[in-house]
Design goal:
250 residues; seven-stranded parallel beta sheet; alpha/beta; Rossmann fold; 8 helices
Length: 250
């Protein structure tokens, strides 16, 4: 069994459902002591229970990533459990309602930037302060989106925020490299999460036609990529942006 993260401390924001939940389960299976963080206590605790039932280690810390002090306290509390943080996955975010840019209100724009971009900045800011304290390399994985790599009609604020996450990752990776902290981003395409489940069957079939591989991705597949990037197996990888999208090219 691959236990490449044995005794590492890993934090997953938005870890209660979807990609975040599967990522927490994956990192725990690799041996990490996972701190599941979510704004929803029920979802977060359910994820922790699933990890514990599998014989792995986890705990829950509630945090709203749109509040800077919550992110700061999350990093502090996670670090206190074991003397530092080894892995941080910035996964928490929102999708928003499809709407053209000229119809977006300033409040909607600002909220999207806060949750999907500024929160990633705060996560970076406070996570790196607790990394490298156990003589071990640090790894940060930011969850962006293919929407941030090309024009995305109807998804303007979301796409801009995710493009910001990509650029933040590239810059942060250069700044943190000499501290032995690796920073990478993943850009999922259509993944079978609650967002997809809300679409009816005909809409889902149209969405699948856009994917050369012919199906949606799964949260577990995304989690496997995150697990690899978090592990020592990816020790020479930093400042990289990984598409995981079934071949979509827009």
């Amino acid at each position: 069994m691959n236990r490449s993260l044995e005794n590492a401390t890993a934090v997953v924001t938005g870890g209660g459902v979807g990609i975040g939940r599967e990522t927490a389960l994956k990192l725990a299976s690799l041996g990490a002591n996972v701190v599941v963080s979510d704004i929803d206590e029920n979802n977060g605790n359910d994820a922790v229970d699933a990890i514990l039932k599998a014989g792995n280690r986890a705990s829950f810390i509630k945090a709203d990533v749109s509040i800077e002090n919550d992110v700061k306290e999350l990093a502090q509390k996670a670090a206190q459990q074991s003397g530092g943080i080894d892995v941080w996955v910035s996964n928490a975010g929102i999708g928003g309602t499809p709407k053209k840019l000229h119809k977006i209100t300033t409040e909607e724009w600002n909220h999207m930037m806060l949750v999907d971009l500024t929160s990633v900045f705060w996560s970076h800011k406070y996570a790196v302060q607790h990394m490298g304290k156990k003589g071990r390399a640090g790894s940060i994985i930011n969850v962006a989106s293919i929407a941030g790599l090309a024009g995305s009609p109807g998804l303007g604020p979301y796409a801009v925020a995710k493009a910001g996450v990509v650029e933040l990752t590239l810059t942060a990776a250069l700044e943190a490299a000499k501290k032995n902290i690796r920073i990478n981003a993943i850009c999922p395409g259509w993944v079978q999460t609650r967002i997809i489940d809300f679409a009816n069957d005909s809409i889902q079939e149209e969405m699948k036609k856009q994917i050369p591989i012919g199906r949606f991705g799964t949260p577990a597949e995304v989690a496997s990529l995150i697990g690899f990037l978090a592990s020592p197996e990816a020790s020479f990888i930093t400042g990289s942006i990984y598409r995981i999208d079934g071949g979509i090219r827009s």
